[in-house]
Amino acid sequence: MKETDREAVATAVQRVAGMLQRPDQLDKVEQYRRREARKKASVEARLKAAIQSQLDGVRTGLSQLHSALNDVTDIQRSLADVSRDWRQSINTVESLKDVKDAVVRHSQLAAAVENLKNIFSVPEIVRETQDLIEQGALLQAHRKLMDLECSRDGLMYEQYRMDSGNTRDMTLIHGYFGSTQGLSDELAKQLWMVLQRSLVTVRRDPTLLVSVVRIIEREEKIDRRILDRKKQTGFVPPGRPKNWKEKMFAILDRTVTTRIEGTQADTRESDKMWLVRHLEIIRKYVLDDLIVAKNLMVQCFPPHYEIFRNLLSMYHQALSTRMQELASEDLEANEIVSLLTWVLNTYTSAEMMGNAELAPEVDVSTLEPLLSPDVVSELLDTYMSTLTSNIIAWLRKALETDKKDWLKETEPEADQDGYYQTTLPAIVFQMFEQNLQVAAQISEDLKTKVLVLCLQQMNSFLSRYKDETQSYKEQHLRDRQHPHCYVQYVIAIINNCQTFKESIVSLKRKYLKSDVEAGVSLSQPSMDGILDAIAKEGCGSLLEEVFLDLEQHLSELMTRKWLLGSNAVDTICVTVEDYFNDFAKIKKPYKKGFGEDADGYCDTITAVAEVIKLTDPSLLYLEVSTLVSKYPDIRDDHIGALLAMRGDTSRDMKQTIIETLEQGPTQANPNYVPIFKEIVVPSLNVAKLLK
């Protein structure tokens, strides 16, 4: 207590010191004293009240303990009295056994009398129930059936209680009510028929469907009550439990499966589009059925039935089973695409399970796949294998068709710019486009695989194309009169090479993502080289064709016949012009040598002509030196042949000009493209002039 007093004094001193910090606060000392007195009185009052409350509680507890002690004493006395009375009554109970048996018999007789009316009316109730079932009055029929079953079950239960081992009486009762089970089965058939047509019934007569559900609910309650009594007595009436709710879902499940399977109206033999039609019918039926179930059927079933969720699960499982069956068939490539597109895309799209009318009950992200990944992978492998064979066959057929066009007597078609072409590139890449568009409907990965396949097969195809163009040339050289439009079709083949190159680039740009483009490009063999080789070979064939036509006329040049007068030059000019008109229909860049580069060669011809037509021999050296400075790759044999063609240059003069030019410095333009180094000088062109 002393320690507490000291702490109280110290606290008080601190508070007083805090109140009297300034001189002007001394005037308020009396005010402070009154306030502290009020606080002290308030605290003392609360303390007294708390102590008084504690004392009252203790006083009440003691009183209750005293009462409980008295009650325990009274209970002990009462139990002693009961024990004494029980011992005295044992003999009395034994003497009342006959009375007990009489009571049991009386209760059984009372039950029999009570059910006597129902027992005698059983045949009539059976007939009425049968009539009601036939009339479709299912609720009334079920009510009478319940009365029959209740009478039967009550009698059998009483018999079971009296003598459970008496099978003869049990059989007698069961036989008398034998029609009851038949009525139950007949009523069940009617219920199942309504449930099988529930999606139609709910739109035309929802009351009938509600009646069926009410009957099933009644039977479920009876089943539960009987099973509860079984735990106590061990008695179960015949035909119980009926489990009609479980059977109802089984009927609905079987109905859904039958509806899905029954949508196939055609076969491959009768209609090539059988699978597309089959899948479209399934889509429409399932979507319509689920919308009806969501909007109408849920109103006819208790919430705990979760009818829409269960139907959704049934449809999903039935669809999965059907898709598995279809996947196991020997499907063609286009059928595999139709199936996978439907399974992977259509099923979860807004056209089906993702439809806004099914939201939010249907969440497509929670739906399991209709086909397992292994089955999908197997189908894709089959599709790629079949597609490979088909592409090879299509390309071969396209090439054979194009080869037939090469033999036509009419010129090939020209595009909008007038360039010759055949339909081969369009056919090939149209086929590629179609397959890529189909693959894109399934997945990006498949689209990339198909593109790689197309490019691989294109590479092999171009090799065959190259061989066929070479064979075409050889066939023509054996008889240059045939084919009639050989030159035009070679030009078309050359143009096709450029079209192929452009189409390949366009195909990659359209169907290949940028992040995988590099990898695919590196994995593909270079097709540009093959196409350039075909085009180069074609250009060579065209030039060869020109020189074969000009060979006879060129051989006349620098001969006596030519000097005396010949149409060779005119013929050469006309022939070259005629070919040039055809060569103008070659696309860039393969037009090089036939178009924009021709001017350079014409300048060369003009420069050479200046040397030939010079009339003053004294200026010959100057003219030749000018020619050599412009074309530094010109050789001595070229100059010798040129001077020999003039016919007025002596051997010594020719030698002097050549030696002088050899001594002079020559420095070629770095941009100069050699021309003369490819030109071979015939050894007999001087001798020709003597003929």
TrEMBL record:
InterPro entries the UniProt entry points to: EXOC3/Sec6 (IPR010326), EXOC3/Sec6_C (IPR042532)
A Gene Ontology CC term for this entry?
exocyst
Q: Which GO terms describe its molecular function?
A: SNARE binding
The protein's superkingdom reads Eukaryota
Any one GO BP annotation for this protein:
exocytosis
Instruction: Identify its protein family.
Output: Belongs to the SEC6 family.
Protein name, please? Exocyst complex component 3 isoform X2
Q: Which organism is it from?
A: Panthera pardus
This chain is encoded by the gene named: EXOC3
